[in-house]
Design brief:
The protein is built from no helices and 36 strands. With 384 residues, the protein is an all-beta fold. The strands form 5 sheets. Strands 5-7-9-6-30-29 form a 6-stranded parallel barrel. The N terminus is likely disordered.
Length: 384
């Protein structure tokens, strides 16, 4: 193996394809003709990680970008014969491609390709968006075990165990922990947010189903998992799991073989099993409050559960000055209005005046306050 440099990028070359159908050699790689610009919009990312991303053999990830924040070790590992980010970007300081892996545009400092691995292009590493923040919340204490199909109204609960089908009727749910057994179903009949103070456990369960009902998109089920480490937090799903949701986890997300998912996932680490598929759907709306400014001085803008929320200020709160000393500037129903403050006299309205028909006959006329007046005709009559 030989280390070669491409415009400051380090590539560990080995036998096989390393880029765009070129066969690896022991010679230095050609210089990149036109480096690309890394994507920065958070809603374009299917996977975001602060630590690493590992995708299994024959995995297929499509429709969105993959980004890993700066760190040490292998940022992204793509399994054998996997197809990842075709037409999209994969961002990581060190990217390892197993044999026959096919990926799209890479933004990396180091690429380690296996035999017959290929990628569309290689540009310098650029830091992807930060992970969406998780606000502080308090779960309940009362446990809930679902053994028969159950519809649940919003509320706070302790340990929630699902052995059957749990339907969320819409709103915000706060659990201490969520455990899913084999064939368990967690579904949302209307837009729902599930905040879990600890972890979502389903590692030993197969055929778990998580998602909104009907034609709703992944944005209508948000899973916010606040546990700080892989012991007390994170998400684990067994084989043949199905997930349609936007997931934000402080700890790792691990899914088993033949996982099938839609939405977006942000976690400290992501590990996908063999033959897993995942496609971006909707994506995260924001990562921090600063991304949610709506330009209205009468709203408080915040990023909550990876979604922008614009809360109206109290009625009558001061808002942007319109520069008119005769108006008071205040908030009403989230909008800034400017009403007369009574310090300036009202101007009497000017009654409309109708211009009479000009005199008939030849000649030139000028309309003044005294009416139509005859004036000399000249070749050019300039009106000032």
């Amino acid at each position: 193996m030989k280390w070669s440099t491409v415009r400051g990028l380090v590539v560990a070359t080995s036998f096989g394809l390393i880029a765009c159908g070129q066969t690896a050699t022991e010679e230095p790689l050609a210089e990149v003709a036109q480096p690309l610009t890394a994507p920065t919009q958070v809603n374009s990312f299917a996977l975001l990680a602060s630590g690493r991303v590992r995708l299994g053999d024959r995995a297929t990830f499509s429709g969105g970008n993959i980004g890993v924040l700066p760190g040490t070790g292998d940022s992204v590992t793509v399994g054998s014969a996997a197809h990842v980010g075709i037409g999209s970007s994969t961002i990581g300081q060190r990217i390892v491609l197993k044999d026959r892996a096919v990926v799209g545009d890479l933004f990396a400092t180091t690429v380690v390709p296996g035999a017959n691995a290929s990628y569309a292009s290689l540009s310098a590493y650029a830091t992807p968006p930060a992970l969406p923040s998780i606000a502080t919340f308090s779960a309940g204490t009362a446990p809930l075990t679902v053994n028969t199909p159950t519809t649940l109204a919003p509320g706070n609960f302790g340990q929630v165990t699902v052995n059957s089908t749990l339907t969320l009727s819409g709103g915000t749910y706060q659990f201490q922990n969520l455990t899913l057994s084999t064939n368990a179903v967690l579904q949302a009949s209307a837009a729902s947010v599930v905040r879990v103070a600890g972890k979502i456990s389903g590692a030993s369960a197969n055929f778990v189903r998580i998602g909104p009902t009907g034609t709703q998109t992944a944005a209508n089920l948000r899973l916010i998992v606040a546990g700080a480490n892989d012991t007390n937090g994170g998400v684990t799903l067994g084989t043949d799991a199905r997930l349609t949701a936007l997931v934000v986890s402080r700890a790792s997300v691990t899914v088993g073989d033949r996982f099938n998912g839609k939405g977006a996932i942000a976690a400290s680490n992501f590990t996908g099993g063999n033959d897993a598929t995942f496609a971006l759907q909707t994506g995260f709306e924001c990562t921090a409050d600063s991304a949610c400014d709506d330009g209205q001085s009468c709203t408080t803008d915040s990023c909550v559960d990876a979604k922008c929320v614009h809360s109206a200020l109290p009625e009558g709160a001061m808002c942007s000055d319109d520069g008119d000393s005769c108006t008071a500037d205040s908030c009403a129903s989230g909008s800034c209005i400017h009403t007369p403050n009574g310090t300036c006299p009202a101007l009497a309205p000017i009654p409309p005046r109708k211009m009479p028909t000009p005199p008939s006959g030849l000649g030139c006329f000028w309309y003044t306050l005294n009416g139509w007046e005859s004036i000399p005709c000249t070749p050019v009559q300039e009106v000032i």
